[in-house]
Structure formats: C-alpha cells, structure tokens
Amino acid sequence: METAAIIKLVSSAAGAIAPHLLKKAGNQLNPTEVEKAIKAGLVAAEKQEETLEPQNRLFFRSPPDFVPRFLEQFLARAGVQQELLKPLENRGEPDLAYLREEFARSHAETPQINLQLQQIEPWLGTFVKTYFEKTSTYLKFQVAKANYFRQLRQQFDNIIFAGISVPGQEDEKSGYLAEIFVMPDVVEEGQKYRDRDFILETLESLYL
User: Fold this and answer.
1) Interval 179-188: pLDDT, tens
2) Could you give the count of Cα atoms lying within 13 Å of 128 in the half-sphere of its Cβ?
3) pLDDT band at residue 28 under the 50/70/90 scheme
4) What is the three-class DSSP state of 2?
5) Which of 92, 153, 167, 186 is the most buried (most CB within 10 A)?
6) What torsion, rounded to 10 degrees, do the Cα atoms 114, 97, 141, 15 define?
7) What is the C-alpha to C-alpha distance for residues 27 and 191, in angstroms, rounded to an integer?
8) What is d(CA 66, CA 112) in angstroms, rounded to the nearest whole number?
9) Continuous segment of H or E residues that includes residue 187
10) Phi/psi of residue 78, each to 5°?
11) pLDDT (tens digit, 9 = 90+) per residue, 51-88?
C-alpha cells in the first residue's frame, strides 16, 4: 500500500482517539501531538508489512473501508486506552500482550474484518514501539521547555533600567518581564518597506 494511502487509512482513527486520551492524561501535551504519535505508530505498523507478500499482510482479506473503523473501535476500548495512557503518565510502554488480547476481542466482534492472525503481534509490536518513542519525545520536549521558561523567569523576570532619570522617581526603574513585554507586529516584507518609505517621506516633508 502506498504511504499516502496508509496515512489516509489511519488518520481518522488517530484523530478520533487523541482528544480522549489527552483528557484522561491531564498533562501539557496537546491533541495534535498525541494524534501524531498514534498516527506514527499506525503508519509504522502498516509500512513494516511492505516486506511481506500481500496475501500475508494483516488486513489483506479485510475490506479496506472497514479497516479505519476497526482500528478506531480497537483504540477506543477502555483497556486499550489505559495502556496508551502509560507513556503519557510516565508509566512505561503499553503492554503488548494485553493489547494483543484486546485486538483479538475487537476482531471477534467485527465480522467484516478477516485478519492474518500470525501478523497481529508483529503489527502491534511496531505500533507500540513507535507510539512510545513519539510520546516520550514530546514529553521530554515539554519538560525541557518548562525548565527553560522557569530559568528564564528566574534570571530575567525583574529587569532593571539603569540610567533612566524620571522627575520625582528613582534613577533606576525595574519591572517584571510579563509587565513590559510587547508582542511584536509581523508584516509582509513588501509592507515593511512601504511603511519605511512613508515614514521617510513624512520626515522629509517636516524639514522642507
């Protein structure tokens, strides 16, 4: 199956499940990051089957239209979501053996899906490994970002303006970063030069 087709196959399942997981996890990840992790796991699981003959692949005998629905139902199972929450809550990898049992239960409940049973464990193994790696990376980034902002506040939050003399006030003023920060405006490159030309023309007119 082409990569584009694989991504289309798994996108609906990943997008449907990510918000529910994040709500349960209650951490700083956003739905997009969790969705990307689920999607990466599903895509990796599908792509690892490209080394197999088509008739040996997990979903070869299943109608393609039913596969996304099956994956969504599998990922929505309460036990599966508890396993997927583990890396989001720093509790290690999802349990592959348990997920295999849940996968088999979903299979039994979905008569339209006909699986190559010997491929369930390799498929799930790749999904779990990739999902765990992605969520771990996102969480490490969040921790690093939080540490960076904390250090930034500690070092630069109270800014002193040396040498500024204001009548009736002390010579050196201080303020907190959040109180003095001004969000910069972003304009198109052409607009920037048009604004500059307008200012120069205005200044020149004042001195003519």
Assistant:
1) 655 656 655 5
2) 21
3) low
4) coil
5) 153
6) 30
7) 41
8) 7
9) none
10) -55, -45
11) 899 899 998 888 888 888 898 889 889 999 899 889 88
